[in-house]
């Protein structure tokens, strides 16, 4: 039996909660899984947005302070 989409075969005895993790590992998309889980959590979403804003503000500060614009 060939499994062309690299997904693990579904078994009746597996744990429902780990099916998505198993699928992410099999499809080699663990980073995408982590980002989706982080974005789904409201606190982590706020932390990601805040981190992006701080990094952007720092880059803008460095560009303006060094006179690159």
Write up what this structure looks like.
The chain has helices at residues 19-26, 30-40, 42-65. Helix content is 62%, strand content 0%. It has 69 residues and is an all-alpha fold. The mean pLDDT is 81.
Would you kindly provide a brief summary of this structure?
The protein is 62% helix and 0% strand.
**Estimated radius of gyration:** 20 Å
The H/E string reads: HHH
Q: Mind summarizing the main beta sheet? A: none
The count of DSSP E runs of length 2 or more, i.e. the number of strands, is 0
The gross shape turns out to be elongated
Query: What share of residues are in beta strands?
Result: under 5%
Give the proportion of residues in helices: 55-70%
Low-confidence stretches: none
Helix- and strand-based class?
A: mainly alpha
- What is the mean predicted local confidence, pLDDT? 81
User: How far apart lie the N and C ends?
Assistant: 60 Å
Number of helices: 3
